[in-house]
TrEMBL record:
Species the sequence originates in: Pestalotiopsis fici (strain W106-1 / CGMCC3.15140)
GO biological process, one term: mitochondrial respiratory chain complex IV assembly
Entries under CDD domains matching the protein: SURF1
Membrane topology, as annotated: Multi-pass membrane protein
Biased composition (Low complexity): 26-39, 80-89
Keywords for the protein's UniProt record, in alphabetical order: Membrane, Mitochondrion, Mitochondrion inner membrane, Transmembrane, Transmembrane helix
UniProt-recorded name of the protein: SURF1-like protein
Transmembrane segments: 115-134, 325-344
Region annotation Disordered: where it falls in the sequence: 24-104
Amino acid sequence: MKSPSWALRQSLGRQVELALQQRYHSSATSRPSPASRTSNGSSLFTRTTQCRSTTSPSAAIRAVTRSKNAQQQETRRLFSRTSRTSQQQPAEDPNFTSILDNPPQLVRTGRRHNMWGLAFLAIIPVTAFVLGTWQVQRLGWKTELIARFEDRLVRDPLPLPGRVDPDAIHDFDFRRVVAKGHLRHDQEMLIGPRMRDGEDGYMVVTPLEREGDGTTVLVNRGWISKKMRRQADRGPGSLPRGEVVVEGLLREPWKKNMFTPDNRPDKGEFYFPDVRQMAELTGSQAVWIESTMEPDWSESLEMHSRGIPIGRAAEVNLRNNHAQYIFTWYGLAIATSIMFYMVVKKPPTDVSRRVRLNKNW
């Protein structure tokens, strides 16, 4: 069995032999003749054999290291000569543009905006501005309407004619009128439910039959509590007999909204005052009068306890909230415009400022 030192010497010898051969071939400038190649090969193998027998391991390692360094230097010189001759430096190109001559362009990072989303966001402030302008017009119209109605309220009551054209009531809306006659309690109708001061109840509608011409009109006498729905449960004075004088406001027929159910006259259930329908049921004219009164607090309690209908005050109760709508719509238009500007023209953040785009260098 051969010793490890012998195997190490053999390995180092082979490495030295390979290094010397590579160095010999790389440093040769001209091809030698066959004779000289034979003699050199013989001498090389002779020196190799001698190195195997006489060279120590440390000397062999140094020789291998020197041969590798020489080979690396020769390879660098070879590649440097090749790159210099085959490639052209960028600065030698007359069309070359330096990064200093081509300044970078600032770009934004992240996702690009969706065009549909931007279009929808742009429509919101425009729509809000249009609605705000429309509310300005509505405010002027409602203010003028209330002023016209209040002017009619301050006038003296007008005696109600015998025959009233339903189409002409629009020009006399909120006009104070006076009518005399007998109340037909047997044709009484309750409209409800209606709330008053947090209590559920009904509006009492009773036909007023006038003497002389024999015409009948519908009178909204006022509000009663739900527990006074039956006439038998009401106290004295709730069902006046004989001739009475009714002073109230001549009003246009109400309009039913989409959330109110239809009346059911066959069951005596009325959810809104359909004046024409009620007039057909009672054989009266399609004329609606709202009884007015101004009782104090004690009188209201007495009327409430006895089931006497409490009439409305002689005032214009039309809502006029258009000023609030104007501020709402215009405020929404301003807010959404600022949001749209911030989305489209928002300045880049500190991280985004460092991002550059340069395609021509």
